[in-house]
Specification:
With 431 residues, the chain is an alpha/beta fold. Helices cover 27% and strands 23% of the residues. The two termini are 31 Å apart. It binds iron/sulfur cluster (2 copies). One iron/sulfur cluster binds next to loops.
Length: 431
Amino acid sequence: MVTKDNAVYLRKFCPKCGESMSLISTDYEYYKTCDDYLKPPDLPEHANTVVLKGCPFDCGVCPQHQNHPCLALFNVTDECNMKCHICYHSSYPGAGNHRSMDDIKKMLSTLLKSEKEPDLIQVTGGEPSTHPQILEILTYLKNAPVRHLMLNTNGIRIAEEESFAKALKKLGVGFEVYLQFDSLNSESLKDIRARDMMDIRLQALERLERLNISTTLVSVIKKGLNDDEIPELIDFARKYRCIRGVVFQPIQDVGRVESQDDFRLTLTEIRQNIIDDAKNPFMAEDMIPLPCDPHKICVGYAAKNFKEGYADLLPVTGKLPKSAITEHKGTVSFEQDRDFVKNVVETINLETAMGEAILKDKIKQKLFCCWPSFLTPKNMGYEHVFRVVIMEFTDVYNFDTTNIKRECNFMVEPDKLIPFSTHNMGIPQSQ
Ligand code: SF4
Ligand code: SF4
């Protein structure tokens, strides 16, 4: 690592090309803070591969990996009804290869060996809604011992087929749609997605709102194209009751992306954009590193009250004591901070009076699988949570074996769990 002014670079050497530098952070102070948040390794319960060639050639998960799967991705098909310019999976219409139910069952069994009670499964592809058995797959996984199930989708089928959206609604609490939503500008959408998706996205969102299906917007951010829309995207998300937050992903050099240095941006540039925006309430102390993979994931959580078509937000993460997050000891209590509790209660607009009654009615909530539980008023359910997440994946430009070993997003295969980034980079594996 090399620092210059306030920036951090990865210094690399290749026998063919010589030395090069990759910008990995524009904020040295935040970079150092990430190291303070790093929590002790939380290892998978079972390794599927042995160490033969060393990282990153033994993925599976191998015994050297330093993190368990916080997020398990089930790729159920290579087929897609779009052909985005930035597709990490290089999907396209006609790619086919729908996974069988038998494969899905094997994938679940492989995951459960490494993680008895996974926090989050995300069904992905290709476009998973093109799979003829998608509802059967989602129902099967919803009945597995998993806290949260997500469908990662471009929204076309939700927009076009009401019966499909209604079937998703029937999956009930703990199911969420992870909806591609990169821009509010048709030209930017054409650049990223190879077509103007604006009307489709709005139709899908209207339907999700009407059915009140929990939804997270996910935006791929490309410098000079849609980075100036980050504040606008957060503001847009606040106009929907069903939206639980926005995930920003800096563009990465994988799949169909033809990366150029001048369109990359770092996690810290997106974070700065969020905290500089006066319209959203997230300040620097609210956008904090996620302790299991601090350099790659930054999160801000807020209590949300939706009234008159817009969400009031009160950031919570800045109030979490760092030691409680990193040491992961028991439950965090905000009881001592009466003003803060009062603000949370007022923000989520509970009908009960403030005071002892609220604190007696407290229940344990968990914001993220690797965080401690904390006490909240009884009525603070998932619909009262709004989160902003920045998730940066690794590619050839910013690859380093220390960070890749901390990755907590895994692609699940019938007999293996492969960190999402090494999977997308197509690194040839030893076994
Ligand atoms: S990325 Fe993780 S699973 Fe893959 S080889 Fe490295 S340590 Fe092992
Ligand atoms: S990014 Fe998603 S919607 Fe676009 S081609 Fe790839 S799988 Fe399809």
